[in-house]
Amino acid sequence: MIKLRNLYLVFKDQMPPTRFLRNLRKGHIKGLISKRSHFTAKGDPKIAYGRKKTAVKAAKQMQKKYGNYYSNYKCLYCDGYHIGKNSENK
Question: How many Cα atoms occupy the beta-carbon half-sphere of 62 within 13 Å?
Answer without folding.
Answer: 15
